[in-house]
Design a protein that fits this description.
Elements: E1 4-7, H1 18-32, E2 40-44, E3 47-51, H2 55-63, H3 71-80, H4 85-91, H5 102-107, H6 114-126, H7 130-146, E4 157-165, E5 173-179, H8 181-198, H9 201-204, H10 209-219, H11 221-224, H12 233-251, H13 262-273, H14 278-290
Parallel strand pairs: 1-2
Antiparallel strand pairs: 2-3, 4-5
Helix pairs in contact: 6-13, 7-8, 10-12, 12-14
Length: 291
């Protein structure tokens, strides 16, 4: 699979928001590669970033667990997100198969470390079949609900709502709303993902959750590219506040956390079994939500 390398230099055209930068990059990609979806690489800040856009290539990458290893990236991401080193070591600890109990062997017959075991759970949950069908159905139901006009209010509005006479013979008033399309798409997707993975209780723990998530999502690149901590103050504060929200969610009785995906409950229980503290479990669940 050939990969074309492109040199990217800083310029004012990248000073807009993240959505605009992504759109500009994709426009340039199509121009550089004549509309092809071949993989390409960006030489950026002394490193190389490989980008794939073809669904078939994406599937091939996910299936290739022999020559493509993500452990280095995952460890680096955890360090950036201030995961404690002792937690990382526990997540990557490979158990001795001969010292595992029958119950542990039933859950983890291959004696894999927790990260690999979680990867297997992802595959099981998201592979085509009944389990994925249930998730898709729930997501689509939430999507329809969140796109109802009555949900488009508050921070989504860019100007006050207005009413105009309907063209119908009844003469009823029809409401028009001016909204931010970017904010609407982001809020709807985050809400649907939250409800799918954690049920509706996660968002109920904090009315400002969506705003905090947006603040982190806009500027997380500052952390990922390891900018000085003083430069990343706002995004780090958003990340810490989101961690508190996930920790508050974990403190709820199990009976109140109904609707959580099996993947999430299995991860939380598995990490408790490794002796990982609740605040660190909250960080791991936040990373699953964000990713």
């Amino acid at each position: 699979m050939a990969v074309e390398t492109l040199e990217v230099h800083a310029s004012t055209q990248f000073e807009s928001g993240p959505a605009e930068r992504a759109a500009l990059l994709d426009t340039n990609r199509r121009r550089w590669l004549n509309g092809s979806r071949e993989p390409y690489a960006l030489s950026l800040a002394g490193g190389t970033l490989y980008i794939i856009t073809d669904p078939e290539d994406i599937a091939a990458v996910h299936k290739n667990s022999r020559t493509l290893v993500f452990d280095g990236y995952i460890r680096d991401l955890m360090a950036v997100m201030d995961v404690e080193p002792v937690t990382v070591e526990k997540l990557y600890h490979v158990p001795n198969k001969y010292e595992m109990s029958p119950a542990e062997l039933k859950v983890n017959p291959g004696a894999k470390h927790f990260i690999n075991l979680t990867h297997d759970r992802y595959i099981s949950q998201l592979s085509p079949g009944p389990r994925l069908d249930v998730l898709q159905s729930r997501f689509l139901q939430d999507l329809v609900t969140e796109l109802h006009i009555d949900r488009l209010r508050g921070a989504l509005l860019t100007s006050p709502s207005s009413s105009s006479p309907s063209s119908s013979s009844s003469g009823t008033q029809r409401t028009a709303k001016n909204i931010s399309l970017l904010r609407m798409c982001r809020n709807v997707i985050v809400t649907c993902n939250s409800n799918l993975l954690f049920g509706d209780r996660l968002l109920q723990t904090d009315p400002d959750f969506l705003e905090k998530f947006s603040a982190f999502d806009d500027d997380n690149w500052v952390m990922l590219y390891k900018m000085p901590r003083f430069y990343a103050k706002k995004v780090r504060e958003a990340r810490q506040k989101l961690g508190v929200d996930f920790e508050q969610y974990l403190k709820l009785p199990v009976s109140e956390r109904h609707g959580a995906a099996e993947l999430i409950t299995g991860m939380a229980d598995g990490m408790r079994g490794l002796g990982i503290k609740e605040s660190e479990i909250a960080t791991q669940l936040f990373l699953v939500h964000w990713s």
